[in-house]
């Protein structure tokens, strides 16, 4: 846009340099669930993101809820009262979660999004806008996060540009546990601990197999040796404690004996229970 | 002819009462599981609760959403606040088309010690309003071991009837053939997810072959966990022996009163008496011998298992906490057992790779 006075269009990228966002899978689940349940005439779902801002500037998105809205060609109406009510309710449970942004389903960022973003920026200094593409338009489900940057021409505000910031999916270990059951559409029963152990052992054995094959290949000259990998492998093997086999046996057997002792104790208490019950309820028969 | 017969059968169907099919399993959505995990984990070690929402369909109870309850202070006015919060949440969720029916509640627990009288009371409260409700118990402390400890519980019908009549004497328990294992019924859980979610999750899955939970599972240090388990076990043992001591005056009284008619059975009773002495300490029993003699007279006069006014709490105290305590004991016991199994398994299988590489 040519101007008489030479002002420069500033794309200030510094402020967004260290900005990144981490999202918990719960948020994705929530968004998808709301999308599936949306009223028939709405084509997309809009909602608020809750979370916290960590000390190094990353935004941790932990929870979300949908806000009913109506959209027409050029205007958007958001149910603000609902938004506030739910915010208050959520904060009763978890006062540390504050608004960090908002989300919408659908791929791109439209002009109407800017309006909504404006509204949210009145509540939070720098809201994060998350888009979740439920239509899988690119052949995959893209989830992107944006922050708005103001484009200023001298003193005049021209527009706000949505700049993408890096987004990570962050999972707590308990969620990782359940990940397999979260993937499929239905699971018949929850995996027991032994089954989980089995899966882990299989994975471990597969890894060891891979390493074995790699080392064999390198030794036979089929694959070029990569020194860093070789050093890594030797470090790993050296990390095993250097115990002579008898000492190792003793260690294992000792801990095994401790556990057998505990097993024995718990069996005794179970027998005790059965006996106590018989005494207490069967006393009258005798 | 056919039309009228179908019409009649329709009327018949409408007239007959709906047969309640037994609850066979609980179908939970992945969303609910994630929410429960998140909530319980954030507040651990404090115990938290929340409400489950869903649909009751035939023999399946579907749980499609949930919301957490704020931690309740010990304050009178907060009660009304709590109810308001609940109404507000349900109203808001209704507006976004979430199923609005309460089907139960969830709570977190530590090492499986959730079997308390409050749980039973909450169950009874819910049961009055809802025909079918479940309680989901989640144990966040076990997730450090790589196990998803999620359980769905329901009170068994026979126990509920017994509780309603508030009649826990040994006689009634024997009549119904009810032992402590019959109090709670565990219902199998199935997980379902919408196709959209599973598509997203498959996509977002990280590519590493090994995840953090594998590292957790292969951990050797289970000692602190076992120690805590044993502590719980010991506490429960103490509680149980206290309960039994309270019950002993009654036992003794029964022994004494029932020896008179059938002399042939005296020796058996002496054996029982001896066993009971072995199980509890001699000293506390001696203390009980004194007052029970006078109680004997009163009870003899009033009948077999009456409730004397001067000691109304004694017979009541015996049965009500007792089954619950036994259960909590049992469960902690079971956990110790499971834990042992896991550990045994770990030890056995862990030694193999070591031998391989070495």
From TrEMBL, chain B:
**Can you supply a Gene Ontology BP term from the record?**
formation of cytoplasmic translation initiation complex
Query: What's the superkingdom here?
Result: Eukaryota
Q: Which GO terms describe its molecular function?
A: metallopeptidase activity; translation initiation factor activity
Alphabetical GO CC annotations of the entry are:
eukaryotic 43S preinitiation complex; eukaryotic 48S preinitiation complex; eukaryotic translation initiation factor 3 complex
Show the InterPro entries listed in the entry.
eIF3h, eIF3h_C, JAMM/MPN+_dom, JAMM_MPN+_peptidase_M67A, MPN
Q: Which PROSITE patterns match?
A: MPN (PS50249)
Name the Gene3D superfamilies for this protein: Cytidine Deaminase, domain 2
Pfam families, alphabetized: eIF3h_C, JAB
Q: Where does this one sit in the cell? A: Cytoplasm
Give positions of region: Disordered.
294-318
Key words of the record: Cytoplasm, Initiation factor, Protein biosynthesis
The UniProt regions of compositional bias labelled Basic and acidic residues, in chain numbering, are 294-303
Protein's UniProt keywords contain Protein biosynthesis? yes
Per UniProt, residues of the MPN domain are 26-159
- What is the annotated quaternary arrangement, including any partners? Component of the eukaryotic translation initiation factor 3 (eIF-3) complex.
Question: What family is this?
Answer: Belongs to the eIF-3 subunit H family.
What task does this protein carry out?
Component of the eukaryotic translation initiation factor 3 (eIF-3) complex, which is involved in protein synthesis of a specialized repertoire of mRNAs and, together with other initiation factors, stimulates binding of mRNA and methionyl-tRNAi to the 40S ribosome. The eIF-3 complex specifically targets and initiates translation of a subset of mRNAs involved in cell proliferation.
Q: From the Swiss-Prot or TrEMBL record, give the protein name.
A: Eukaryotic translation initiation factor 3 subunit H
**What organism is the protein native to?**
Hibiscus syriacus
């Amino acid at each position: 846009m040519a101007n008489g006075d030479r002002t420069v269009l500033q794309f200030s990228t510094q402020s967004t340099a260290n900005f990144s966002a981490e999202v918990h899978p719960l948020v994705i689940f929530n968004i998808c669930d709301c999308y599936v349940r949306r009223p028939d005439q709405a084509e997309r779902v809009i909602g608020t993101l809750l979370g916290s801002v960590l000390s190094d500037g990353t935004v941790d998105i932990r929870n979300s809820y949908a806000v009913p809205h109506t959209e027409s060609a050029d205007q958007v109406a958001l149910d603000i009262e609902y938004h506030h009510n739910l915010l208050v309710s959520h904060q009763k449970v978890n006062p540390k979660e504050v608004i960090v942004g908002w989300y919408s389903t659908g791929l791109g960022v439209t002009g109407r999004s800017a309006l909504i973003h404006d509204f949210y920026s009145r509540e939070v200094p720098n809201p994060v806008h998350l888009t979740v593409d439920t239509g899988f338009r690119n052949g995959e489900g893209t989830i992107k996060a944006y922050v708005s940057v103001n484009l200023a021409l001298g003193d005049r505000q021209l527009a706000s540009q949505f700049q993408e910031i890096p987004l990570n999916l962050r999972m707590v270990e308990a969620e990782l546990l359940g990940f397999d059951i979260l993937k499929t559409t239905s699971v018949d029963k929850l995996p027991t601990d032994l089954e989980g152990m089995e899966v882990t052992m299989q994975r471990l054995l597969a890894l060891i197999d891979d390493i074995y094959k790699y080392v064999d290949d390198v030794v036979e000259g089929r694959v070029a040796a990569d020194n860093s990998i070789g050093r890594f492998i030797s470090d790993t093997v050296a990390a095993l404690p250097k115990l002579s086999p008898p000492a190792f046996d003793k260690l294992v057997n000792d801990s095994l004996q401790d556990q057998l002792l505990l097993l024995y104790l718990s069996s005794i208490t179970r027998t005790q229970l059965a006996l106590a019950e018989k005494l207490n309820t069967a006393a009258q028969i005798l | 002819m056919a039309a009228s017969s179908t019409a009649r059968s329709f009327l018949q169907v409408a007239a007959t009462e709906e047969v309640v099919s037994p609850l066979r399993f609980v179908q939970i959505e992945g969303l609910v599981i994630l929410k429960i995990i998140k909530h319980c984990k954030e507040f651990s070690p404090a115990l938290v609760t929340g409400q489950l929402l869903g649909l009751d369909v035939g023999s399946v109870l579907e749980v499609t959403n949930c919301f957490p309850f704020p931690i309740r202070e010990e304050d009178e006015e907060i009660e009304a606040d709590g109810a308001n919060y609940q109404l507000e949440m349900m109203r808001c969720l209704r507006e976004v088309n979430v199923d609005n029916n309460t089907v139960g509640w969830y709570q977190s627990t530590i090492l499986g010690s959730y079997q308390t009288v409050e749980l039973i009371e909450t169950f009874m409260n819910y049961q009055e309003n809802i025909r079918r409700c479940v309680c989901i118990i989640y144990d966040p402390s076990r997730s450090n071991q790589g196990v998803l400890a999620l359980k769905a519980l329901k009170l068994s019908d026979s126990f509920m009837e017994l509780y309603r009549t508030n009649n826990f004497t040994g006689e009634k328990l024997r009549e119904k053939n009810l032992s402590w294992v019959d109090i709670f019924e565990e219902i199998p859980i199935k997980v379902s997810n919408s196709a959209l979610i599973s598509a997203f999750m498959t996509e977002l899955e990280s590519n590493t072959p090994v995840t953090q939970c594998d590292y957790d599972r292969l951990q050797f240090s289970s000692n602190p966990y076992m120690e805590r388990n044993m502590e719980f076990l010991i506490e429960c043992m103490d509680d149980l022996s206290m309960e039994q001591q309270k019950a002993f005056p009654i036992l003794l009284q029964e022994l004494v009163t029932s020896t008179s008619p059938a002399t042939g059975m005296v020796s058996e009773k002496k054996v029982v008496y001896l066993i009971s002495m072995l199980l509890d300490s001699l000293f506390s029993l001696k203390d009980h011998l004194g007052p029970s003699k006078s109680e004997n007279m009163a009870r003899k006069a009033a009948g077999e298992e009456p409730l004397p006014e001067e000691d109304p709490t004694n017979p009541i105290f015996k049965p009500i906490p007792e089954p619950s305590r036994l259960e909590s004991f049992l469960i902690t016991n079971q956990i110790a057992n499971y834990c042992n199994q896991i550990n045994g398994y770990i030890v056995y299988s862990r030694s193999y790779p070591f031998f391989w590489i070495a």
